[in-house]
Write a structure and sequence with these properties.
Structural class: mainly alpha
Largest sheet: 2 strands, antiparallel
Radius of gyration: 24 Å
Number of helices: 5
Number of strands: 2
Helix content: 40-55%
């Protein structure tokens, strides 16, 4: 009923993570149900139970005392994607997010939150702070922008440079 209907001829070509997910959709569906059964409905309640017991009585792991797990600790399961995104998948996502950002349809914070899932960024606020610090360094002339072009102090990233090219800031070619 939940077998693999993948075509062996297709496996020789490079496949995107999304294409592989579609090819193995039936197996992924079954495994997702097992993740729910054994993860959310099995492992998580067991971990929460151990936390409650650790607060009620002393526990030992391999004869070493276990510190009580505070009830404020939030426990959740974070499952990786079934097929990791390829470089092409990441480029497409980045281009899509950049397009939405430039069009004013997406905030920087939302874009970073979306990209955080793909890039395994755990602390979005810290990432936003690092981005702001990078931009400050670029504007101060102490760092080269990711485009490979230097930023003229006082110019704005994404603004037309002296040659009129949009998005190049200072528009100075790399040395």
């Amino acid at each position: 009923m939940h077998g693999n209907r993948a075509n062996a001829d297709k496996l020789s070509a490079a496949q995107s993570g999304r294409a592989l997910e579609l090819m193995y959709q039936a197996l992924i569906w079954l495994a997702d149900h097992l993740r729910q059964s054994y993860g959310e409905d099995g492992l998580l309640p067991l971990i929460r139970f151990v936390g409650r017991v650790s607060r009620a009585m002393p526990l030992k792991v391999e004869r070493k005392p276990l510190t009580a797990i505070p009830d404020t600790v939030q426990v959740s399961l974070r499952w990786p994607p079934w097929f990791p995104p390829t470089g092409e998948d990441r480029v497409q996502e980045a281009n899509g997010l950049a397009t939405l950002r430039v069009a004013g349809l997406l905030s920087r914070e939302t874009g970073v939150k979306i990209a955080a899932e793909t890039l395994d960024i755990e602390d979005v606020p810290a990432e936003l702070a690092r981005i702001a610090a990078d931009e400050t360094a670029i504007l101060a002339g102490t760092q080269i922008p990711p485009t490979g072009r230097t930023q003229t102090p006082g110019s704005t990233p994404g603004a037309p440079g002296p040659n009129g090219n949009q998005g190049k800031g200072g528009d100075t070619p790399p040395q």
